[in-house]
């Protein structure tokens, strides 16, 4: 259900219902069915933010240490499991760690009738 290509805006792939991601929670997705999450979504202060699942410090390094675990325990920062870099959930700006000042790559999202879509 979470990564099916259902009817939505042309050129967009459905991820899930937008309300399935709660405040200060994150969830990874594999919309291209490659066997690992290529992007993740964070809900921060009511808004959904999509990010490529790759740390700018080590390009291609997946961020989560386990399934859907992209945030710190408080749910206030995105954390790279490889080296502990911390990123702001709404801007993707690295505020702590070796890639300080760099940003995560944003993924375009759309919510249509409560369904969350990503640009494919």
From TrEMBL:
CDD domains documented for this protein: Rieske
Keywords: 2Fe-2S, Iron, Iron-sulfur, Metal-binding
Domain Rieske residue range list: 12-118
Record has Iron-sulfur as a keyword: yes
InterPro entries per the UniProt record, alphabetical: Rieske_2Fe-2S (IPR017941), Rieske_2Fe-2S_sf (IPR036922)
Segment forming the signal sequence: none
GO molecular function list: 2 iron, 2 sulfur cluster binding; metal ion binding
Record Gene3D superfamilies: Rieske [2Fe-2S] iron-sulphur domain
Pfam families registered for this protein in UniProt: Rieske
Descriptive protein name: Rieske domain-containing protein
């Amino acid at each position: 259900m979470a990564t099916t290509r259902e009817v939505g805006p042309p050129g967009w792939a459905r991820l899930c219902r937008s309300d399935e991601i709660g405040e200060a929670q994150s969830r990874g997705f594999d919309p291209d069915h490659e066997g690992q999450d290529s992007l993740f979504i964070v809900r921060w202060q009511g808004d959904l933010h999509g990010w490529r699942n790759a740390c700018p410090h080590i390009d291609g390094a997946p961020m989560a240490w386990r399934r859907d675990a992209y945030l710190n325990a408080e749910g206030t920062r995105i954390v790279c499991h490889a080296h502990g870099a911390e990123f702001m959930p709404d801007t993707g700006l690295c505020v702590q760690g070796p890639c300080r000042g760099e940003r995560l790559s944003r993924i375009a999202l759309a919510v249509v009738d409560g369904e969350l879509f990503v640009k494919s």
